[in-house]
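Sample pair:
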Amino acid sequence: MTHPHHPLHGQRVQLIRVRRGPDPDLIIRLSDGYHGAIAASLTDYAGSALVDPDAAEPPLLLLEGLWQMAQWIAQQRHLEGADEI
């Protein structure tokens, strides 16, 4: 989280999914296992934060998350194709 007054400031969290909208909500897994929503504008989700070249760990994408995105895109394409018929 990048917003300095957010309780999760400076922490990394697991992204579950993105809820669309003008300021998308990120559905995240909290440390207690529950899910929570946070405005994407309060985070570096959009890539606005600078990457520290001295960071010990590079940012990672979970294969499960990539698979979910691929399935969602395929579903959206299928739905768009069904609307054209």
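The chain has one helix and three strands.
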